[in-house]
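pasting for ref
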Amino acid sequence: MSKAAAPASSALNRFCAQVRVRATRMALIELRDAAAAADVVQDSLLKLVSHYHDRPEHEWPPLFYSILRNRITDVHRRRKMEKIFDFFFSSEEDDEAPPSWESIADTALGPEAELANAQLAGRIADALSALSPRQREAFLLREMEGLSIVDTAAAMKVSEGSVKTHHMRALTRLRELLEADHPAKV
Protein backbone atom coordinates (compact mmCIF):
# COMPACT_ATOMS: atom_id res chain seq x y z
CA MET A 1 0.00 0.00 0.00
CA SER A 2 1.36 3.40 -0.92
CA LYS A 3 1.86 6.18 1.62
CA ALA A 4 -0.95 8.22 0.00
CA ALA A 5 -3.38 5.29 0.20
CA ALA A 6 -2.85 4.80 3.96
CA PRO A 7 -4.22 8.24 4.99
CA ALA A 8 -7.13 7.86 2.57
CA SER A 9 -7.84 4.42 4.00
CA SER A 10 -7.77 5.68 7.59
CA ALA A 11 -10.03 8.62 6.62
CA LEU A 12 -12.47 6.20 4.99
CA ASN A 13 -12.38 3.95 8.07
CA ARG A 14 -13.17 6.97 10.28
CA PHE A 15 -16.02 7.98 7.98
CA CYS A 16 -17.48 4.47 8.08
CA ALA A 17 -17.22 4.30 11.88
CA GLN A 18 -18.86 7.71 12.27
CA VAL A 19 -21.74 7.05 9.89
CA ARG A 20 -22.58 3.45 10.88
CA VAL A 21 -24.77 4.15 13.94
CA ARG A 22 -26.70 7.02 12.34
CA ALA A 23 -27.20 5.08 9.11
CA THR A 24 -28.44 2.08 11.08
CA ARG A 25 -31.01 4.26 12.85
CA MET A 26 -32.10 5.64 9.51
CA ALA A 27 -32.42 2.15 8.01
CA LEU A 28 -34.27 0.95 11.12
CA ILE A 29 -36.85 3.70 10.70
CA GLU A 30 -37.31 2.73 7.06
CA LEU A 31 -37.25 -1.06 7.42
CA ARG A 32 -38.55 -1.62 10.97
CA ASP A 33 -36.26 -4.63 11.31
CA ALA A 34 -32.96 -4.33 13.20
CA ALA A 35 -31.26 -7.23 11.44
CA ALA A 36 -32.25 -6.03 7.97
CA ALA A 37 -31.16 -2.48 8.86
CA ALA A 38 -27.75 -3.70 10.00
CA ASP A 39 -27.34 -5.79 6.83
CA VAL A 40 -28.31 -2.91 4.56
CA VAL A 41 -25.85 -0.56 6.25
CA GLN A 42 -23.07 -3.16 6.10
CA ASP A 43 -23.72 -3.78 2.40
CA SER A 44 -23.76 -0.03 1.71
CA LEU A 45 -20.49 0.54 3.55
CA LEU A 46 -18.89 -2.39 1.74
CA LYS A 47 -19.92 -1.01 -1.64
CA LEU A 48 -18.63 2.46 -0.72
CA VAL A 49 -15.28 1.08 0.41
CA SER A 50 -14.83 -1.32 -2.49
CA HIS A 51 -15.98 0.93 -5.33
CA TYR A 52 -15.51 4.53 -4.21
CA HIS A 53 -12.46 4.52 -1.92
CA ASP A 54 -10.52 6.58 -4.44
CA ARG A 55 -13.10 9.38 -4.52
CA PRO A 56 -12.44 12.63 -2.61
CA GLU A 57 -13.55 12.58 1.03
CA HIS A 58 -16.23 15.26 0.55
CA GLU A 59 -18.02 12.97 -1.95
CA TRP A 60 -18.40 10.05 0.48
CA PRO A 61 -21.54 11.23 2.36
CA PRO A 62 -23.77 11.73 -0.71
CA LEU A 63 -22.40 8.58 -2.33
CA PHE A 64 -22.98 6.53 0.82
CA TYR A 65 -26.53 7.78 1.38
CA SER A 66 -27.38 7.21 -2.26
CA ILE A 67 -26.13 3.63 -1.96
CA LEU A 68 -28.04 3.21 1.32
CA ARG A 69 -31.26 4.51 -0.25
CA ASN A 70 -30.90 2.06 -3.13
CA ARG A 71 -30.30 -0.85 -0.75
CA ILE A 72 -33.37 0.09 1.33
CA THR A 73 -35.44 0.27 -1.85
CA ASP A 74 -34.17 -3.18 -2.82
CA VAL A 75 -35.31 -4.58 0.55
CA HIS A 76 -38.76 -3.02 0.13
CA ARG A 77 -39.06 -4.54 -3.35
CA ARG A 78 -37.93 -7.94 -2.09
CA ARG A 79 -40.46 -7.81 0.75
CA LYS A 80 -43.22 -6.89 -1.67
CA MET A 81 -42.38 -9.85 -3.89
CA GLU A 82 -42.21 -12.14 -0.84
CA LYS A 83 -45.70 -11.01 0.21
CA ILE A 84 -47.04 -11.71 -3.25
CA PHE A 85 -45.49 -15.18 -3.30
CA ASP A 86 -46.66 -15.87 0.26
CA PHE A 87 -50.19 -14.87 -0.70
CA PHE A 88 -50.31 -17.29 -3.59
CA PHE A 89 -48.10 -20.12 -2.38
CA SER A 90 -48.30 -20.17 1.39
CA SER A 91 -51.08 -20.98 3.81
CA GLU A 92 -49.34 -19.46 6.82
CA GLU A 93 -48.73 -15.78 7.33
CA ASP A 94 -45.65 -14.67 9.19
CA ASP A 95 -46.29 -11.72 11.44
CA GLU A 96 -43.19 -9.66 12.00
CA ALA A 97 -42.73 -8.14 15.42
CA PRO A 98 -42.53 -4.35 15.44
CA PRO A 99 -39.04 -2.90 15.91
CA SER A 100 -37.73 -2.04 19.30
CA TRP A 101 -37.66 1.75 19.37
CA GLU A 102 -36.16 1.56 22.83
CA SER A 103 -32.81 1.00 21.11
CA ILE A 104 -32.89 4.63 19.95
CA ALA A 105 -33.58 6.08 23.38
CA ASP A 106 -30.88 7.31 25.77
CA THR A 107 -30.50 4.67 28.50
CA ALA A 108 -27.93 6.49 30.65
CA LEU A 109 -30.71 8.15 32.66
CA GLY A 110 -33.03 6.79 35.33
CA PRO A 111 -35.96 4.43 34.66
CA GLU A 112 -38.50 7.27 34.36
CA ALA A 113 -36.32 9.13 31.88
CA GLU A 114 -35.69 5.90 29.96
CA LEU A 115 -39.43 5.30 29.69
CA ALA A 116 -40.04 8.89 28.58
CA ASN A 117 -37.24 8.63 25.99
CA ALA A 118 -38.60 5.32 24.70
CA GLN A 119 -42.09 6.78 24.38
CA LEU A 120 -40.75 9.88 22.66
CA ALA A 121 -38.64 7.78 20.29
CA GLY A 122 -41.73 5.74 19.44
CA ARG A 123 -43.83 8.84 18.76
CA ILE A 124 -41.11 10.33 16.58
CA ALA A 125 -40.66 7.05 14.69
CA ASP A 126 -44.42 6.83 14.13
CA ALA A 127 -44.47 10.43 12.89
CA LEU A 128 -41.53 9.75 10.55
CA SER A 129 -43.30 6.65 9.24
CA ALA A 130 -46.31 8.80 8.36
CA LEU A 131 -44.20 10.89 5.96
CA SER A 132 -43.87 10.03 2.30
CA PRO A 133 -40.64 8.15 1.52
CA ARG A 134 -39.08 11.19 -0.19
CA GLN A 135 -40.04 13.54 2.63
CA ARG A 136 -38.65 11.12 5.20
CA GLU A 137 -35.41 10.70 3.28
CA ALA A 138 -34.94 14.45 2.82
CA PHE A 139 -35.65 15.07 6.51
CA LEU A 140 -33.29 12.35 7.75
CA LEU A 141 -30.44 13.36 5.47
CA ARG A 142 -30.77 17.08 6.25
CA GLU A 143 -31.60 16.93 9.97
CA MET A 144 -30.05 13.72 11.28
CA GLU A 145 -27.05 13.53 8.99
CA GLY A 146 -26.49 17.24 8.53
CA LEU A 147 -25.98 17.00 4.78
CA SER A 148 -26.16 20.19 2.76
CA ILE A 149 -28.92 20.73 0.23
CA VAL A 150 -26.44 20.00 -2.56
CA ASP A 151 -25.24 16.75 -0.97
CA THR A 152 -28.79 15.68 -0.12
CA ALA A 153 -29.83 16.30 -3.74
CA ALA A 154 -26.91 14.18 -4.94
CA ALA A 155 -27.75 11.37 -2.50
CA MET A 156 -31.44 11.40 -3.42
CA LYS A 157 -30.73 11.97 -7.13
CA VAL A 158 -33.18 14.89 -7.31
CA SER A 159 -32.86 18.63 -7.82
CA GLU A 160 -31.97 21.01 -4.99
CA GLY A 161 -35.42 22.57 -5.29
CA SER A 162 -37.00 19.16 -4.81
CA VAL A 163 -34.93 18.62 -1.66
CA LYS A 164 -36.10 21.98 -0.29
CA THR A 165 -39.73 21.14 -1.05
CA HIS A 166 -39.60 17.63 0.45
CA HIS A 167 -37.74 18.90 3.51
CA MET A 168 -40.20 21.73 4.17
CA ARG A 169 -43.20 19.46 3.70
CA ALA A 170 -41.62 16.94 6.09
CA LEU A 171 -41.05 19.61 8.73
CA THR A 172 -44.60 20.90 8.37
CA ARG A 173 -46.12 17.40 8.55
CA LEU A 174 -43.97 16.37 11.52
CA ARG A 175 -44.93 19.55 13.36
CA GLU A 176 -48.61 18.78 12.73
CA LEU A 177 -48.29 15.16 13.85
CA LEU A 178 -46.26 15.88 16.96
CA GLU A 179 -48.39 18.89 17.98
CA ALA A 180 -51.51 16.75 17.60
CA ASP A 181 -49.85 14.26 19.92
CA HIS A 182 -48.97 16.94 22.50
CA PRO A 183 -50.64 20.27 21.77
CA ALA A 184 -48.77 23.30 23.08
CA LYS A 185 -50.15 24.71 26.29
CA VAL A 186 -50.70 28.46 26.30
